[in-house]
Amino acid sequence: MSDNLNKTRPQDAARINVHEEHEVTYWTKTLGISKEELIQVVAKAGTSVKAVREALEKK
Asked: pTM, whole model, 2 decimals?
């Protein structure tokens, strides 16, 4: 099954799925960070948008 290219927003606005390219693109633009940084922060803080934002504020 191929990705739906019309998807531009996350399916769950409270979670970050780094395995979906459209979500990575959305969150990197929204948070103003690189793909690599997003993956690293999610690995440490978890998939919760709130936890990721808090982790980024501490940097």
From this structure: 0.84
